[in-house]
Amino acid sequence: MPAIRPPWRAACAAALALAFPLMAAAAPAPAKEGSPSRQEVEALIRRIESPAEREALVRQLKLLLEAQKGPSASPAGAPSALNSFFAEMMRALGETLRGGLASSPFWRGDLRALLRFLTKALALTALILAAALILVRLIRRGAARLLAWSGRLRALAPGAERKVHLYAPFAVTALAALVWAAASLLALDAWGLPALAVLLSEAGLGLLRSLLGIAVTAAVAVACIEAARAAVEYFLFRRKDPEGNRRAPTPQQRTLLPLALSIFRWAVISAAGVGILSHLGVNVSPILAGAGILGLAVGFGAQSLVKDVITGVFMLLENNIAVGDVVQVKGIGGLVEGFNLRSVRLRDYDGNVHVIPNGAIDVVTNLTKEFSQAVFEVGVAYRENVDEVIALIREVAEGMRTDPEWSSTILEPVEIAGLDKFADSAVVIKGRFKTQPIKQWSVRREFHRRIKNAFDARGIEIPFPHRTLAWAGPKPPRAGSPQGDGAKAGEPPLPGQPEGA
User: CB of 426 within 8 A of CB of 379?
Assistant: First the structure.
């Protein structure tokens, strides 16, 4: 006895039989040649004979024509790997449903075969999902072990612990996504959908090549950036001399290496972005041409920025300023905390930060270039012996230079210029020390302390401004006047003036 098909099942069969062939035909993939089957011809004849189904068929054909007017294509005119993959998937899905519709136990009403199919599909799906879940958990457990061992990497490779903590979550997420994607394809294949066949087709392999190219490009970019960062950190913080002591970087290295790392990082990111767009099927030629035009527009519109950059480049090449120097720029003095192609950042003694554009700098006074000079002026009273004072200054300076605390800071013996000037209340003796860069102020403060103690021990007077008050006496008497104009009769005498004067 033939199986009785419910009306809703026939309606669903007709809708799916029409929808999936139309979707497969709308995809930008070449149609597969071959004559239609007998069942398809009979179904088409029945639809044409029915007025309602004929009108529906005409409407769907019009929609098909509208969909074919603007096929999705890349700017170069060729479909991208992603579009080709989805087009191949829709075509294979339509062919599978169209070819297996008549033989499917669901549409034939064979409940026993349907139960066997559902049981097998559900069992395979459960097995695939369980295997994927176990594999993902193993990946996460391995990542946790790696993070637990990352502390041991600190002694072997300084900085490796930070890299592990930074990139391990991304790697775990990517591997988990790959496992779940593979499980999804296997599960679809278990339900009779041609997921693996589509993946192994030409379009699927093209998509895999594109994804692999994107992953390789991103990995190479990250590896280049991290290698450059490790090299910069080694030169700045971990380089040692033959005795095993850490070698301090020069001011030029502290300035140029971070700037070179920043430029290299953005160049690698830009190149990787262009490569990823190329793997996605995007024509990068207009993008590169647009970038050149944008550069010209920026060059004409932002002349102050261009001036800052050009000035910064020449200052870097001439090594006028480096991070750690003490400079005076535009009347502002301070320690150089940052220097790039755009501006200079200074911090003064009070802690204030000043940012000065490079284009506004016309004169730079570097107080700590290669070495410094601690200039001092010592004033003594006019009655002191200048030669003895100079000899005492040399003695104090030499004792300070031989002091282990200051011997590495003072580079040469003291240079005394001699008696420099005659001030209002003192004679000034001038001299200087040649010191390490940025050490001149500490050397001068220590020398002033020692010279004060030495002068006090020898009894040498360090004059200071003072004022002497004197009372003015009366005017001398005029000729013929018994008493001067400055004193009147009965007026008391001035302080310190004798009676009757």
Answer: yes
DSSP 8-state assignment for residue 102: T
The encoded tokens of residue 456 equal 């006090």
Q: Three-state DSSP class for 22?
A: helix
CATH code: domain 314-366 is: 2.30.30.60
Q: What is the DSSP string of 268-293?
A: HHHHHHHHHHHHTT---HHHHHHHHH
Show the tokens assigned to 16.
């799916």
C-alpha span between 410 and 365 (Å, rounded): 22
d(CA 70, CA 64): 11
d(CA 106, CA 111): 7
302-327 confidence digits (pLDDT tens): 677 778 888 888 888 888 888 888 99
Give the tens place of pLDDT for each residue, 287-300: 777 777 777 776 66
Residue 421 CB neighbour total at 10 angstroms: 11
Q: Say how many residues make up the chain.
A: 501
Q: 366's torsion region: left (phi>0), alpha (psi -120 to 50) or beta? A: beta
Terminal Cα-to-Cα distance of the chain (whole angstroms): 162
Give the torsion sign (CA, 132, 138, 142, 144): positive
Q: Would you identify the CATH topology of the domain 372-458? A: Alpha-Beta Plaits (3.30.70)
Task: Collapse the DSSP code of 232 into the 3-class scheme (helix H, G, I; strand E, B; otherwise coil) and give the result.
Answer: helix
User: What is the mean pLDDT of the segment spanning 278-286?
Assistant: 79
Rg for the chain, CA atoms, rounded: 46
Show me where the domains of the chain are located.
Answer: 7-108, 120-285, 314-366, 372-458
Strand partners, 364: 329
This prediction has a pTM of 0.51
pLDDT band at 28 (very low <50, low <70, confident <90, very high): very low
